[in-house]
Amino acid sequence: MSYTRPALSLTHAGALKALAAAVARAEEIRVPQCIVIVDVSGETVASLRMEGAKYLSMHTARSKARTAASINNATGAMAFEFGTAAGIASQGGVTTLPGGLPIRFDGVIAGAIGVGSGTGEQDFDVARAALAAIGADAL
Prior knowledge:
By secondary structure, the chain is of the alpha+beta class. The chain contains four helices and four strands, in the order H-E-E-H-H-E-E-H. The mean pLDDT is about 95.
């Protein structure tokens, strides 16, 4: 029986490169976004609210990132009842809203990104651009 597992940690340089790529994609599609990048424990490593992005979307972007890190999967597919209960139990730390993706390298999670202020598909588009910029596994 093994008592360890492989672990990765996203560096601040990686977080900043991902953040810059997300901003560039948001500008390209002309949708100002709130972007939050967290480590595997859900702690914020980098965040930004672009001019014109909705203020409250900073809260949802953080919840999306924390949820993606926690479940090691994309947000938005949870059953409504489970998501609602988890959101209440976590005081808004968990959300069913689309726009959160885990950041994985060779299948090992290193953090997550949450994007908010556009439609769910726009949020995912911006998040995927961030993953591509740092060579993370595509989702």
